[in-house]
Design goal:
Residues 395-475 are annotated as: Disordered. Residues 464-475 have a biased composition (Basic and acidic residues). Residues 400-443 have a biased composition (Pro residues). A hairpin with a 5-residue loop joins strand 3 and strand 4. Helix 3 (101-123) packs antiparallel against helix 7. Among the domains are: 41-56 and 63-85, no CATH class; 101-235, no CATH class; 249-348 and 361-391, no CATH class. With 475 residues, the chain is mainly alpha-helical. The model is unreliable at 1-5, 32-37, 89-95, 398-402 and 433-453 (pLDDT under 50). 50% of the residues lie in helices and 4% in strands. The protein has helices spanning 40-52, 61-71, 101-123, 133-155, 161-172, 186-195, 205-235, 240-243, 249-276, 281-286, 299-342, 359-362, 370-390, 453-460, and strands at 72-77, 80-85, 288-290, 296-298. It is built from 14 helices and four strands. The chain has a two-stranded antiparallel sheet. A two-stranded antiparallel sheet has the order 3-4.
């Protein structure tokens, strides 16, 4: 029996009842194990996962390298290298994708501009008498810190768009009105007011050079901000479907990598929730769930498929085929999994009679507990987000051709040269000795007039020349 559900593409969690029960019939099963019983490899894997903020998986060398690079920042200090640890709050990875497109261009501009801007910032001296040195150095430190943070964000594959917006807001105040160094607000404006970097306080050429350094600093920041506005909509893959622009492939793949890692972790959470309500591995392999495209499959088979796709298969499709792999294979599998998970039976939904084809009645009551239903809903949300981010990625999409000149209405253009001019129809030629096709043309020489078709054929046929006779041989 084929079962179709019109609510496959809807939010599965919206139909769930409020979570006001505590699953008293299925208490959490906990077991205390002494540390001496744990294997050293498990202890090391757990410690590495806690430090890197990354879910350990055997054989995932690229994910380990990406997590290691993102968790530690290396600096060269006085001839030796120091590593600073950056704690991460969520176990994600960015082993796929890279900083490309508009983000890479902005990052290159930011490295060059901020390096020179920092040198100009350090060279600024106050022009206003009676300046408080501590206030001036405080604003200088704020501007330097915000410039460095903008550079770090633009170089990071895990770019946070609202944070970049906030950093520019702190630097420029209202960036829309910051069109002139004398009108800029924010911390740059506070630095200008504190140091007195305005034209009225400039007296010598050296003081004007100091003011020029501040003007150049503001111009570089404004130019970087305008570039950010131009590329912002295509850098953020999560906002792309609303902007209508094609996303850059590198940031989009980074987002897919994060979402697939979250979906893999959520699949493990769902398996743990099923085990806590006495639905173990053997039970999951025999419990049947409906397929919205027709037929059925086992619950364990769906969970294994989802985990393998989010951990290995999906990443391999992106690595080996790029955009073609996303468009022709990755998206189709993700949509199928999203429909299967979204169509899982809900609590209080459907008939509970144990009849053939009623998959809800064959599932144990623990499947409809709040903890399992909420875990299924979170997994469905992750798969929906994967489909939403992957759907706009296409290969070979070209911009539409610009419209050509408008087509003139009929009868408004120039007339063809051989059309007769408007007026009375010409009179037919008088009868003569020549046929119409051989009538003489006025003003033409008489030698060009053909008297008859036979004569014309004779003139067109080439005359065969006689072959020359051989010369007599001398005796």
């Amino acid at each position: 029996m084929t079962i179709y559900d019109d609510r496959v593409n809807e939010d599965r969690g919206a139909a769930l009842p409020p979570a006001h029960d505590i699953d008293s019939a299925y208490p959490l099963v906990t077991r205390h194990e002494s540390p001496c019983c744990e294997r050293p490899g498990d202890i090391a894997a757990k410690a590495i996962s806690d430090v890197l903020g990354w879910k350990w998986r055997n054989g995932d060398t690229k994910g380990f390298t990406a997590a290691l690079t993102g968790s530690f920042e290396l600096k060269r200090v006085e001839g030796h290298t120091e590593a600073n640890w950056t704690p991460r709050g969520y176990a994600i990875q960015a082993d796929l994708g890279a900083v490309t497109g508009g983000q890479a261009s902005l990052a290159a501009r930011a490295r060059s501009a901020i390096k020179d801007a920092t040198a100009l910032l350090d060279s600024l001296k106050p022009l206003r008498p009676g300046v408080d040195p501590e206030n001036g150095e405080g604003f200088r430190s704020l501007v330097r810190h915000e410039l460095e943070e903008i550079r770090k964000e633009l170089e990071s594959p895990l770019l946070r768009v609202p944070r970049v917006d906030q950093l520019f807001l702190l630097l420029l105040g209202n960036p829309a009105s910051a069109v002139d160094p004398d009108l800029v607000r924010g911390h740059l404006g506070e630095l200008r007011n504190e140091f007195g970097l305005i034209g009225g306080l400039v007296n010598t050429i050296e003081e004007e050079r100091i003011q020029t350094s501040f003007i150049t600093l503001v111009d570089w920041v404004l130019s970087l901000y305008r570039g950010w506005l131009d590329a912002r909509g295509r850098i953020d893959p999560f906002a792309q479907p609303e902007t209508g622009q094609a996303p850059f492939f590198g940031p989009a793949v980074v987002a897919l990598s994060q979402l697939m890692s979250a979906a893999a972790v959520q699949t493990e959470e769902l398996v743990a929730a099923l085990s806590s309500v006495s639905i173990h591995r053997g039970d999951r392999e025999v419990l049947r769930i409906p397929d919205p495209d027709g037929g059925s499959m086992s619950l364990g088979g769906l969970l294994r498929w989802t985990y393998e796709f989010t951990c290995f298969e999906g990443r391999k499709l992106i690595e080996v085929a790029g955009k073609d792999g996303v468009d022709s294979a990755f998206l189709q599998v993700a949509e199928r999994l999203e429909r299967l998970v979204g169509n899982l039976p809900r609590r209080g939904d459907g008939d509970e009679q144990d009849v053939p084809g009623n998959y809800r009645a064959t599932l144990p009551p623990g499947f409809f507990s709040s903890r399992v239903q909420r875990a299924v809903d979170e997994l469905h949300d992750h798969l929906q987000e994967i489909v939403r981010v992957a759907r706009p990625i296409r290969h070979g999409a070209k911009p539409a051709d610009p419209p050509g000149p408008p087509t003139p209405p009929p009868g408004s253009g120039p007339k063809p040269p051989d059309s007769p001019p408007p007026g009375p129809a010409p009179e037919p030629p008088p009868p003569g000795p020549f046929p119409p096709s051989a009538a003489p043309v006025p003003g033409a020489p008489a030698a060009t007039v053909e008297a008859s078709p036979d004569l014309a054929a004779k003139r067109r046929s080439p005359r065969k020349r006689p072959e020359p006779k051989p010369a007599p041989r001398p005796e």
